[in-house]
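Weekly puzzle thread! Below is a chain. First person to post its structure in token form gets bragging rights.
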Amino acid sequence: MQYIYPIRLEASLHETLWGGRRLERDGWKRLPQANVAIGEAWETEISNVVQNGAHAGKTLGALVNELGPSLLGTQTLAIFGMRFPLLAKFIDANARLSVQVHPDDNYASVHEGGKLGKTEFWYILATEPGASIVHGFKAATSRAEVERAIQDVTLEHLLHEENVQPGDVIFVPAGTVHAIGSGVLLYELQEYSDITYRMYDYGRLTADGKPRELHIERSLDVARYAPSQRIKVNPVALSSEPGYEERCLVACRYFVTRELRLKEYRTLAAATGSSCVILTCLQGTPVVWYPGTDEPGLKGDFRRYASEKLASGQTMILPAALGRYIIEGPGTVLRSYVPEAADEAWQLWRTENNEA
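Winning reply:
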């Protein structure tokens, strides 16, 4: 028997050279001992363990194998195959990250053993004064010029830096040369891929006095050498009334992310379909109501509902086969899924952002 209900996951925490303690200081996560610098919290990593219900103790990867289409949905299978499609993260850049670029699906399939490429987006949650990101180049350049700048440790002179502040939405298609600057806390959603080509690291050395590994040839293979046509994208209003607001933050063939803001006791009724849904709470204490088991002798509208609570920094997955569900406020929730071609939010966002 397949048990279908909202899956709450325990995030995995990742120590990095550039991380810090902001995820705990700002109330998003509980971190290990104070001398550990945590740069990322991976919300939907396949090794993350289920916390609730009949599947408690299993990993997300095990659930993909066990539930298959009931968890993933037909559209997810069509785009990504039999694997969990999207990786959600919180990222705390206490120091600037290296300059990176990701391949597209075609390059990754050929050169990385059939893996996925990586398109992603960032939702800026908090910044220090003057915080910025790198997104593309200042002006059109060439592979040869970029390669020379990497060797001369002067690539930063070619890169475009963009100041950011809370609420900014940054779309990062595969092939975009990019970096997160220091003093930035953000939420990231990406194709579920572990392929990152480190193009440049400002000549920095590790604790043992050695430079970090660079992937120069492959980063040059996949990079786009023109300036980015659009960096900050425009969220699109989907609906709004007293106590309720929903926007589409970003949309592409791999994912749509909607931001839902609910005041106390306001609700949104929705349903899963051809994709699983990733819910991440950014504020408040929303409750997700969903169909429970049928009471003996009852049918239709008398089906009993069960509930799961969310708090800031927590994530759950709604299986594609779940069907109807209700989100009750107060709270701010991100809802992400793999869209069908006719998805209304995707169409509206694409019109507003000129096919960004």
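Puzzle host: Confirmed. Bonus trivia for everyone else. The chain has two domains: 7-222, 236-352.
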